[in-house]
Amino acid sequence: MASRHKSREDRDLAPIDVQPGDFSNLTDVMRIMEGAFPKTYGEGWNHHQCRSMLSLPSAKLLIARRKGSVCGFVISRQAADEEELLMIAVDPECQNSGVGHLLLEQMFLIAQEDQVSAIFLEMRANNPAVKLYARFGFREIGLRKAYYTGPNMEKFDAITYKAAVSDQAK
Fold it and tell me: What is the model's pTM?
């Protein structure tokens, strides 16, 4: 489906391949999720939540591999002409090497093929992934005050973002 090799940061690493996934990838999805999401904010899903979501006919799973090993994934679902990015995670050892970017790039390409007009996501206000999402045209459209609880019971807002798929056509 897709392959990418970044020349600067990961010159010595193998290319990243992205392909559709299925239930056979659930063990890898859970391994990556447990490493990528700190328990502090309660953002990661458990095995039952992942299996339930992937059981839906509208759910999509993309798996990123490097040297045959799963290093990232994205879970989304489509309703009419809208897609919701539900979960994206990259193995901590592979973060900042283009895996997340390639997963989003492939998600947008598939959304365009499926005639999706917009992609939505929601995340914690202090999530550093906002920089990646901004590169894909995601703009803030909504806010849930004090949705997440962090360390020392500190509250964080949940922010809803939207990106037009047509803006990504390259």
Answer: 0.86
